[in-house]
């Protein structure tokens, strides 16, 4: 799988606005048929990066290659883009709106009509085809916007915060739809702040902070490399065991769960034995890998 | 190209279908008629009955003459007997007559009374008259000094000195009276004086030989200027609104990810221009149908319009539209709200207004150097050149030169605009400053 040709290559790409460097020397490769997570705090340069990928702005230096070709206007038709800041014409009917955006991607006629109906049905919006945007709820508008990104069956789908404004039911619907796209062989770039969702969907992750790449690779490998000797516990009794500074550096309590960070090099087995010895009733004892959330926060703090 | 057409199509269909378009198309001609005819009627219909004036005659012999001149006015013919007694001013006129007169001068009706001195001092009489003016028993009074015939200055006191028509009428009535009296005193027979003072009634004929009605064609030219001014302004505002909508709803981001900014902006401008042409076309057809109907024996006479004028109008409308709409598109991409856009576009709108006001002067002297230069300056030309064509068609080379300058300006503006538009549309949250915009132009 490593030797398949990448869908998208950013090669030492930089972009600044006046004095402000939005993206500095960014190199990434996005492989086909995978979900690529682009994460980072607000103002890190994600949106600027995406705008360069969809050819809205050009980089100051560096090279962007899509499907093995240098970025160009005709290639835009093979990209679907859901921007973070959503926009639909307020007074236009949903059906007409989708037809217009499809035309802008060179999809027209009966084929466009067929796909619009199919997508509206899939996202439970068929009844709204002849309604105007302003009559729709925010979540519905969001789904319409998503359709504009995928209606022309693009090979690369870029989704910037696709879950914002959706209720839990629709978040699930959206997740399933994204995974279907992936199963159909599409390459997906997902930018989000919702780390739990990114964790479930992404195969690869690139994290940028303050215009620079701070982390890049397969999600599984990243998590393994960030393993910090942490244990999730549920127990009763055993007072004072966790207070040994030679064994434990940090304790976090989430309801019944206790998350314990061990001193580097300390063995979790020692902790378990001490708890047993102290007469505690242990109902859960689990070694945990750090979540993307933890890694995110650690990385952002590191740079700051 | 197909994407460009998609933008044109969307812009056109979405706008033509709106209620606003339908209402504006129907109400437009009504408003136009209102704007040209109503002010004329307002001027001529003097509300509140005749103007009551008192005359203090210190010469002792001028009262009759001045009163007569005031009551009969400019149109005084040989037949002096038409003078009506002061208590019975001219009967009410039909609005039609009043509109006709509004073009040349307004003849208000006067009700004249003599304020006799009766051995009182002039100051006492003045005090008395001032009180009457205050109590609204009089609109004003005239004092004719004893040395009136030898250059003495008569005095006109009125509550409303801003009423220029009344002032002008009073002035010319006294002048005529004084002239008549001097001639009589010089030994010329009264009848001869009356005949000699008979005013001419000017017959206006266009150089081509067609007789034209002066006022009618003044209002026609004025109407043409107003129409082009209002349509350029209205459709420019549409472009401004459309650009701001796309910017503020962030649709621009999706559009730019699908096509280049230049065909997008052009698609918008062309789409809205087609809406404008549709509307003007409907009006033109309605006008033609109406004139055909009117020609078939109705009392309404419409100005004769040479067919070439429709072509000229279309061409100069498009020139004005593209110049101003391109500016509006730039402004729209620089601001965040319609209000801000209105403020930023104000200097440009003022140029359009200036062009409109210049046309008043140009109607009077369409071949003056001012008229020439005003019709070569591209921001004025759409109105001023058209006004010149309607009043006194300039040589073809001037029309073509004006168009050439206009087209060059449009090309330059669009070149500039496409650079600003692309960057401006993606900048959110704050209004762009002029130095910033200048940097965008240089960078891209």
Mind explaining what this structure looks like?
The complex is a heterodimer of chains A (304) and B (444). Chain A is α/β, with parallel strands linked by helices and 304 residues long. In chain A, 32% of the residues lie in helices and 29% in strands. Chain A is built from 9 helices and 14 strands. In chain A, the strands form 3 sheets. In chain A, strands 6-7-8-3-9-10 form a 6-stranded mixed beta sheet, with helices on both faces. In chain A, strands 2-1-4-5 form a 4-stranded antiparallel beta sheet, covered by helices on one side. Chain A has a 4-stranded antiparallel beta sheet with strand order 12-13-11-14, covered by helices on one side. The longest helix of chain A has 16 residues, at 168-183. By secondary structure, chain B is mostly helical. Helix content of chain B is 66%, strand content 5%. Chain B has helices spanning 2-16, 19-44, 63-72, 95-102, 122-134, 164-185, 190-196, 214-248, 251-256, 261-295, 307-334, 338-364, 369-376, 381-391, 396-425, 434-443, and strands at 51-57, 110-114, 140-144, 155-158. Chain B has a 4-stranded mixed beta sheet, with helices on both faces. The longest helix of chain B has 35 residues, at 214-248. Chain B is elongated, with a radius of gyration of 29 Å. The model of chain B is unreliable at 75-107 and 209-213 (pLDDT under 50). Classes of the chains: A alpha/beta (304), B mainly alpha (444). The interface between A and B is medium-sized, with 28 and 23 residues.
Give structural attributes.
heterodimer, A: about 300 residues, alpha/beta, 6-stranded mixed β-sheet, 4-stranded antiparallel β-sheet, 9 helices, 14 strands, globular, B: about 450 residues, mainly alpha, 4-stranded mixed β-sheet
